[in-house]
């Protein structure tokens, strides 16, 4: 198993989320799992620290490496799945319809962009824009935050500032106590025109091209700080600490989505 390596991918004491108002000096609420509940109901209320998915993947791959009955395929997109016999295995297909093998169980972890979810849910509207834009980047608080902001942020794994029609999130995603990487997200309800307002005329045409570390990063930082009017000026230093940023429209599936009840394909 991998449980003995849990703290290689998770940050201790990061399972607390704090909520703040834009101009507040103290949190208005905390979300966490008390120790007594963790001990009484460990099966479904255990500690929930922030964990790094990339490190978890690496641990899983390392644990499978010596096993002769396990194979790993990289850089192949799953496009569809079809059941071969009733209550039997399923065949996974790539995006050109080529077989990727037969499986007793397929775990779909593709998220909102899944190409297999239609086998598990009825989704009459498909993926739709939410009317919000997300500006997402990375900060290293221990290296770049002023002491007063660090004092506010340090006790928590997630830090949420909400109000005035926007929301700022900071969330630890480093692998362990020495890995201080933190996600910064700024959500704003508006048309998808942030890049234009920031002075960036050319839209990225690829995921890699959308990760801004050049002069566009400076332009987006200035746009965020201008938009954060009414926020405690201390939070502007978190924006200054961004080492990269991506700007993208937010999408989700509608509330009309329901689980299918007659599914026999071995897909979760």
Observed structural traits:
single chain, 268 residues, alpha+beta, three-stranded antiparallel β-sheet, 8 helices, 21% helix
Summarize the helix and strand pattern as letters: EEHHHEEEEEHHEEEHHHEE
Structural class: alpha+beta
* Assembly of the depicted chains: single chain
- What percent of the residues sit in helical stretches (DSSP H or I)? 10-25%
Radius of gyration: 22 Å
The largest sheet has its strands arranged as 2-1-8-9-10-7-11
Which residues sit in consecutive blocks of at least 5 with pLDDT less than 50?
A: none
Principal-axes geometry comes out as globular
Question: What is the CA-CA span between the terminal residues?
Answer: 21 Å
The overall average pLDDT, rounded, is 89
How large is the count of helical segments? 8
Q: Proportion of β residues? A: 25-35%
How many β-strand stretches?
Answer: 12
Largest sheet: number of strands, sense, barrel closure: 7 strands, mixed
